[in-house]
Design a protein that fits this description.
About 65% of the residues lie in helices and about 5% in strands. It contains 1 helix and 4 strands, in the order ββββα.
């Protein structure tokens, strides 16, 4: 950005020996040097060797006016005024540009910091959401696995009980049959001995 220096209500004041030049303007005071109180000249006139001469002024277009006389001192002072105006304008523009660059850097830093903060916050929220979703899915999976394990254990228990019951019934049946067969065999043996005992002669 280019800054055009067009001061309003401005004037140049020359010291009594042409050695000091001060610029008075409505521009921001922080960009302008303080006038030296020891070399203040009159705003309307100055006296050189007892004669009243017209002071060269700086109009609002940024150019020093042409001196009214051909006095080399007046010409030199007018040229010095033009040089001082150029130097002051360049200084003001340079400082203003540095301020603008500093503001731009600060704004960029703030924007970058805000962007990074938002990214971190978004990542944190996404991570928490993912962790919550994973926790819920893990809990559901564990519930399903627990239910399947309980059903499997119940089935195995019922099958074992049924098998044991069947084995017990078969064993009891076999034992019952074996006991009945033994009892029957004993009864038959007893009955087969009784006739011999009846026909045996007495002694």
């Amino acid at each position: 950005m280019h800054l055009s220096i067009k001061p309003t209500n401005s004037e140049w004041s020359l010291g009594p020996h042409g050695a000091d030049v001060s610029f008075i303007s409505k521009s921001p005071a922080k960009y302008l040097p303080s006038p030296d109180s020891t070399h203040q000249a009159s705003k309307s006139q100055r006296y050189n060797h007892g004669q009243k001469q017209q002071q060269p002024t700086l109009p609002c277009n940024g150019r020093a006016s042409t001196p009214t006389s051909n006095d080399p001192l007046d010409i030199e002072k007018a040229a010095a005024s033009r040089r001082m105006e150029i130097i002051l304008a360049e200084s003001i523009e340079k400082i203003w540009q540095q301020d603008q660059d500093s503001v731009a850097r600060v704004n960029q830093g703030r924007a970058r910091a805000m962007c990074e903060t938002q990214n971190l916050a978004s990542e944190s929220v996404a991570k928490l959401n993912n962790q919550g979703f994973e926790t819920m899915e893990r809990a559901k999976r564990e519930d399903r696995e627990s239910e399947a394990r309980v059903l499997r254990l119940n089935g195995e228990s019922k099958a074992r009980i049924a098998r044991e019951n069947g084995e017990s019934k078969a064993r009891i049946s076999n034992e019952t049959k074996e006991s009945a067969a033994r009892i029957e065999a004993i009864q038959e043996a007893s009955e087969s001995r009784r006739p011999h005992e009846k026909t045996k002669p007495d002694s």
